[in-house]
Amino acid sequence: MGPAAETGGARSSPVGVHAFTTGGLARGALGYADQVGAEVVQVYVGNPRGWALPPGDPAQDEAFLAGCAQRGTLAYIHASLLVNLASPTSLTVQRSVATLEHALRRGAAIGARVVVSHAGSPVDDAHAAAALPQVRAVLLQLLDRAAGAGWPKLLVEPSAGGGRCVASRVEHLGAYLAAVDDHPWLGTCFDTCHAWAAGHDLSGPDGMGATLDALVGAVGPERLWLVHANDSKDPCGSTRDRHENLGLGHIGADAFGALFTHPAAAGVPMVVETPGHDGEGHRADLAVLRRARAAAAAPVSAGRR
Fold it and tell me: Beta strands of 46-174 (E only): which ranges?
């Protein structure tokens, strides 16, 4: 059973934001979470587009850990966007492993539940057949180290479908997890914008539900541990990863309601990674999710009266 199932309570999915850490984890990320009313906060612990592995500030780490505990806020880490365990370049693979290990160690220090990483790409056709065996060789070792050390678990997030990704559609996740023997320290992150860009039509009457059914069919009912709830600036199947605020993009606000009614997403935390770090856009996004959550809970509440 993964981290999402440990939320407890009535299995109501908490909602939150990806927050920048300018000024430090506690001052920056937690301060922003307070500003927008987030119940979950996701952060980078290094440059998202670089290989530097900063050690962190122990005082800020301690304050962030204590602040999350005091607020009941769940913490998540997103690994650098450069991570690519399927790369044909050995130096990129080495740096990717080091970056993931750094994020997992930092996660243990700040109380993060998991670390999210993109699935990666073989880059060219010549390396395609070797990509998943290569992922297996490096990722199994890392997952074993993380499990043995008690570090956070790792989540694989499918891409938007551009290039030659090892996992873009949710069905591809089955082969990815199978490559590491369904290791218990590896779960999945479902990004709605990525799924839409990869060709999953989430906007139809049961589009979101059907896509989550397909995810469960690929990885099982207990492997979805985080949702990135993002609308899209582009049409379905565009393979373009351009996030939009909820209800302002092509997916539409109504589709997100199914995230609170599908069994696979019950209790799973949801993070928005949308425009609006002035606070207004994110407050509006969280309001969309809270309304959907309340609507999903209303029949249950009425039935208990």
Answer: 74-78, 114-118, 153-157
